[in-house]
């Protein structure tokens, strides 16, 4: 049976231009989660909040929008606006670990409060748009904010509602993205969740995927995160598709060119344009041997011309071996 692979959302990186470029030039994903929208308001959604999702029919890549909120009215209002725009699915982020989000009891900051989560879900599923399944609701979460007992306390609540699926990243909010994801906690979800579960965490090459898959041989649905930003071919490779090196280089160059074109057309100012590309290369440099040298050359570029020269040089470097990709990934987790 084939695996279902989705791209994790990355606020500040995987915007609609990134998603479209990845889908067009490389692909391998069944769907793409959009980075979170927060503070969208209700009953009217601030139009700028929908920029990354419109127009929906232009999205060749199947996109699932995501919200961070602790207010059911906002979740319902966004679902209605997205439905009007052509979407049929909304993901609720209960995983974001960043302090500016969690200290407002949002993202993973809500996980220590199962009563609040129950109240929000009750109100959400009283709204016609959700109880009729017109818009499906899925949840992306962690094992907890402070500790893994929190997800155990939340599961019976999730189970009481017709949630479409549950995506688990097995770190706590306090861990941020450091250390290791503890795949063992996924076992509890598989055993006790009424809903299909999707695994997300630390998959960055075939070996790391194989290790987790061996633990859960019946699991078929995976979300790829930083590993996919490092190696845009990861989804294909996990599906057993290995392109010849020359074709990989051509596709990678086209993918990069699309991103750079978007930056120049849509981001104001040279330094912000190169800044966005540097955020991309923070991960993408790991696709090459000598990833640290590749990234420091890119980082030094200040002007468009310097950036173009640095990127051209980088794209010609030898591709990294799996062990080198692993080292790059683990440096990101320090
Ligand atoms: C810079 C950055 C931005 C992120 N933005 C989001 C986001 O908007 N929504 C979300 O659900 N997760 C977000 N994440 C978390 C990732 O989607 C993913 O869950 C995380 O990287 C763990 O998966 P991995 O170990 O495969 O990378 C972000 C992570 C990082 C490092």
What keywords describe this structure?
globular, 15 helices, alpha/beta, single chain
Please state the CA-atom Rg, rounded to the nearest Å: 20 Å
Specify the biggest β-sheet: 8 strands, parallel, barrel
Strand order of the largest sheet: 1-2-3-4-5-6-7-8
What is the overall pLDDT average? Answer: 96
Tell me the count of domains. Answer: 2
Distance between the termini: 35 Å
General form: globular
Tell how many strands the DSSP assignment holds. 8
SSE run: EHEEHEHHHEHEHEHEHHHHHHH
Relative helix content: 40-55%
Explain the layout of strands and helices:
Layout: E1 4-7, H1 16-25, E2 31-38, E3 63-68, H2 72-85, E4 89-94, H3 99-102, H4 114-124, H5 128-131, E5 136-144, H6 149-159, E6 166-172, H7 184-192, E7 197-200, H8 206-215, E8 221-224, H9 226-230, H10 234-238, H11 245-266, H12 270-284, H13 291-300, H14 304-315, H15 322-332
Parallel strand pairs: 1-2, 1-8, 2-3, 3-4, 4-5, 5-6, 6-7, 7-8
Helix pairs in contact: 1-11, 2-4, 4-6, 11-12, 13-14
Residues 8-12, 35-36, 66, 93, 95, 140, 169, 177, 181, 200-203, 225-227 line the site of flavin mononucleotide.
């Amino acid at each position: 049976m084939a695996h279902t692979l989705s791209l994790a959302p990355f606020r500040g990186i995987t915007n609609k231009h990134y998603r479209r470029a990845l889908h067009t030039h490389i692909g391998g994903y069944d769907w793409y989660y959009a980075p979170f929208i927060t503070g969208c308001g209700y009953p009217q959604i601030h139009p700028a909040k929908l920029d990354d999702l419109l127009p929906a029919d232009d999205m060749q890549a199947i996109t699932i929008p995501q919200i961070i909120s602790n207010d059911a009215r906002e979740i319902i209002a966004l679902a209605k606006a997205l439905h009007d725009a052509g979407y049929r699915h909304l993901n609720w982020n209960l995983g974001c670990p960043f302090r500016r989000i969690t200290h407002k009891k949002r993202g993973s900051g809500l996980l220590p409060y199962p009563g609040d989560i129950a109240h929000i879900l009750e109100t959400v599923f009283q709204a016609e748009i959700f109880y009729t399944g017109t818009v499906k609701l899925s949840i992306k979460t962690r094992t907890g904010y402070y500790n893994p007992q929190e997800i155990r306390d939340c599961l019976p609540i999730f189970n009481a509602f017709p949630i479409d699926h549950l995506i688990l990243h097995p770190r706590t909010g306090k861990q941020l993205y450091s250390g290791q994801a503890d795949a063992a906690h996924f076992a509890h979800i598989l055993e006790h969740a009424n809903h299909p579960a999707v695994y997300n965490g630390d998959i960055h090459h075939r070996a790391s995927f194989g290790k987790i898959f061996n633990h859960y041989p019946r699991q078929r649905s995976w979300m790829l995160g930083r590993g996919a930003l490092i190696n845009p071919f990861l989804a294909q490779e996990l599906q057993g598709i290995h392109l010849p090196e020359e074709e990989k280089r051509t596709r990678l160059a086209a993918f990069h060119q699309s991103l750079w074109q978007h930056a120049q057309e849509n981001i104001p100012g040279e330094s912000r344009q190169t800044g966005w590309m540097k955020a991309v290369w923070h991960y993408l440099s790991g696709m090459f041997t000598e990833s640290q040298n590749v990234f420091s050359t890119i980082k030094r570029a200040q002007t468009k011309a310097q950036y173009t020269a640095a990127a051209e040089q980088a794209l010609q470097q030898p591709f990294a071996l799996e062990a080198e990709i692993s080292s790059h990934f683990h440096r990101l987790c320090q």
